[in-house]
Q: What sequence folds into this?
């Protein structure tokens, strides 16, 4: 018996291809923003969180996603950055994230310059996330109610749904103090890895001083971006 021949699907139009690409970019921007390396074996070696009255790792991530949802409603980068700054300082381990972003050269930087870099990194990261959120209007977050063990820390799983209905799993990595140290999108996009890529050029050109100038200049440039025109 012969099976019916399937009718070939016509190739996508340019408009359809652009729409798919836009949706993918929106999800990627949102995830990298913290909502965002090859999959780490440690991510697979997990165990359920202990039973108890709430999960402090989940509570920390919820504070951050609440701030992200609030920032999504703001009109421009500066307003979003102001909303995110406090919750990020509270829930992220900013010195550790910066150390991971700098890499092995961090230990070569004098303590006073490390402190200056951390002070500049705080508004830089908040403004970076605020900028990325401009492409994520209408997104929502569903948080797994229990975290999982990762070494001495925890992982909290979040599902991000963008305005078009596309979903993306996001893993927040927290340390033993329940502070966020990295964010993974589908095990392939690491915030620490993204920072390391962005920091490599200024570090090679001028070390800690060049990185400090890069952080400050980048923050100023992002904050100066005009608000989107009303449709």
A:
């Amino acid at each position: 018996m012969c099976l019916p021949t399937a009718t070939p699907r016509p190739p996508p139009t340019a408009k359809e291809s652009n729409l798919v690409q836009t949706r993918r970019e929106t999800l990627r921007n949102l995830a990298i923003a913290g909502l965002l390396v090859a999959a780490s074996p440690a991510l697979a070696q997990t165990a359920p969180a202990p039973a108890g009255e709430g999960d402090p790792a989940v509570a920390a991530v919820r504070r951050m996603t609440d701030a992200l949802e609030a920032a999504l409603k703001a009109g421009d980068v500066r307003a979003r950055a102001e909303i995110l700054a406090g919750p990020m300082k509270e829930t992220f381990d900013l010195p550790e994230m910066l150390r991971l972003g700098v890499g092995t050269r961090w230990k070569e930087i004098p303590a006073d310059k490390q402190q200056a870099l951390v002070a500049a990194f705080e508004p830089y990261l908040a403004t970076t996330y605020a900028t990325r959120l401009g492409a994520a209007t209408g997104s929502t977050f569903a948080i797994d109610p229990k975290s999982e063990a990762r070494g001495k820390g925890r992982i909290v799983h979040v599902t991000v749904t963008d305005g078009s209905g596309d979903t993306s799993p996001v893993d927040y990595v927290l340390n033993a103090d329940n502070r966020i140290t990295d964010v993974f999108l589908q095990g392939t996009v690491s915030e620490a890895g993204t920072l390391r890529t962005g920091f490599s050029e200024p570090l090679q050109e001028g070390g800690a001083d060049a990185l400090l100038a890069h952080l400050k200049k980048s923050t100023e440039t992002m904050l100066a971006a005009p608000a989107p025109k009303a449709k």
Q: What stands out?
A: The chain has seven helices and six strands. The helical segments are 14-32, 41-44, 56-72, 77-91, 94-102, 111-132, 191-223. The longest helix spans residues 191-223.
